[in-house]
# Entry
Amino acid sequence: MSVLNPPPDALLARLEARLGPRGFTRDEDDMAPWLTDWRGRYHGRAAALVSPASAADVREVVTACAQAGVGIVPQGGNSSMVGGATPPAQGGVLLLSLRRMNAIRTVSAEDNVLVAEAGAILTHVHEAAAAAGRRFPLTLGAKGSATVGGLVSTNAGGTQVLRFGPMRSLVAGLEAVLPDGSLYEGLSALRKDNRGYDLKQLLIGAEGTLGIVTAASLRLFPAAASRSVAWCGVATPSAALALLRFLEDRTGPAVESFELVPRRALDLVLAYVPGTRPPLAAPASWNVLVEAVDAALEPPLVEAAEAGLLGDAALAVSEAQAEAFWRLRDSISEAERHSGPALKHDISVPVAAMPAFMESAAAAVEQRFPGTRVIAFGHLGDGNVHFTVGAPPEADGAVWLESEALAVSAFVYGEVGAAGGSISAEHGIGQMKREALAATVSPVRLAAQRAIKQALDPKGIMNPGKLLPG
Ligand code: MLT
Ligand code: ZN
# Structure
């Protein structure tokens, strides 16, 4: 393992001179908001916060750090779920924010490609695509803060993966500064390019450990003329999956989102998120939020109800109501944050196995750790749910987290492994799951991942302490 150096004074002075007051600070108050992850679980330190304004600036920082063996932690919207953008607790690194690099460089309706800099916020990408009569389909609850660089670097998923796939399917090209300071200029959005190893795909999901993404070419799609959004009550996760397949059968590829929400999650949202209202007259044990684009959901839902596939359902009659339904779904994470200490897991298993997994794994956890409460919600159609284990109500939350976290997560991951699944479906590894990665992937996979890291970043300066186990 390589040993990193704290940034020498001369290096800090050189970067301060290059980046100016907007691009360089060592002030504790200025840095404080960016040294803790948004859930408040990880707290780091940094010798300085640098905020480059261009890829050339990023090159300058990386080149200087490569020469001096100094670690760099790249950060976008600071919305990582796994502490992926929080510097290490011991500090001695530079925190590099991409937030100033937020331009939408170009939008081509002809090529169906938008080029955005790493610090562009997802909402702005949506707006720029819409202004050109196109859309960028990937979306998620944190769209108002998540940035392009972070979305690329975590291979983000969200709520439209069902039809469009995660970032890996939506990135057409990348510009990135590699760990030696060189610039990879790969923004050209060729539909076909078979010139060997795909560096772009290596950088997607690398969590900033192989280089710093500075811009991305993103694939656009025709704007939707209309959407149909419904909130449906179903009896079980298995009934939910049957409903999804039924709707797909009737509407072809029109179903773009299919999100599973258990009653426990909905209750938290209604309790903690102001202005939310129950979507159905009588609460259902399980709910699905379904969205179809350019197709009406009412006829297939009526048919599904007649076939006994769903209970009560509410079809949004206005954009405002559709937004209100989505707000219920997108606020689950936020509501969980207010509801007390809990351990979050982001897991996937084969789609067909997910309903049985959800019920058996939740029962097994609650039996093995008495008093805990499982809330599993999310992207059923992708075989991915967020599996949250809440602390027993009578326990001191902080003490419980400290003493039980490892055992609870190891137990959950054991269940996931037995079902042939993954311990990270869409949030990445960050600093939260490094040991779990080592414990759950094959030695062959881990060795190949280490070899790639060693080849591209032999000094280990890029996002130290993340992804690969130490
Ligand atoms: C979601 O699907 O809501 C996000 O991935 C966040 C979460 O896991 O809580
Ligand atoms: Zn999710």
Remarks:
- The two ends are 7 Å apart (CA to CA).
- The longest strand covers residues 212-219.
- The pocket of D-malate (ligand 1) is lined by residues 81, 141, 332-333, 346, 378, 386 (CB under 6 Å).
- The mean pLDDT is 97.
